[in-house]
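User: Hi! I have a protein structure encoded as tokens and I'd like to know what sequence might fold into it. I'm fairly new to this, so please keep things simple.
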């Protein structure tokens, strides 16, 4: 998943159902390896990055700082969660620096997350969901590697 990608989001639920948002996505490994997350033992930020996607186009919550390169609050965080025995790891991408803060563990609040369900050498895809107290918008996404 490291590298530059073209990210496409399609809304299938919510006020913007049927709408599409496209933009760039850049991912890299953090210096020093995976980053710990406050209060979470079985998950780590394995990649961090930035995006210029416009979440509002598909009804997703904009969690701010999508272009943040600060490892304490990256614009994009790829989180790998250890799965129960017999299952593979779960990969979630959180979009927005406020949702990716490593100096505080949010109790509740807004979110915008992509759930990776397919991963190949050139692309990855899955579903996404976003909201405040409950899910307000959701859909599917794909990210295709682009030459740098």
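Assistant: Happy to help. Inverse folding works backwards from shape to sequence: for each of the 148 positions I chose a residue that suits the local structure. Here it is:
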């Amino acid at each position: 998943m490291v590298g530059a990608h073209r990210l496409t989001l399609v809304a299938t639920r919510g006020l913007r159902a049927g709408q599409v948002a496209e933009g760039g996505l850049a991912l890299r490994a953090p210096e020093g390896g995976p980053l710990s997350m406050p209060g979470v033992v079985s998950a780590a930020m394995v990649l961090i990055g930035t995006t210029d996607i416009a979440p509002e186009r598909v009804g997703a919550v904009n969690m701010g700082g999508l272009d943040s390169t600060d490892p304490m609050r990256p614009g994009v965080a790829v989180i790998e969660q250890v799965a129960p025995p017999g299952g593979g790891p779960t990969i979630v991408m959180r979009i927005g620096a406020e949702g990716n803060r490593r100096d505080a563990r949010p109790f509740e609040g807004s979110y915008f997350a992509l759930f990776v369900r397919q991963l190949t050498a050139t692309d990855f895809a899955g579903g996404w969901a976003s909201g405040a107290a409950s899910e307000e918008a959701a859909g599917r996404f794909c990210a295709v590697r682009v030459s740098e």
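A useful reference point when you look it over: The CA atoms of residues 55 and 62 lie 6 Å apart. Feel free to ask if any position seems puzzling.
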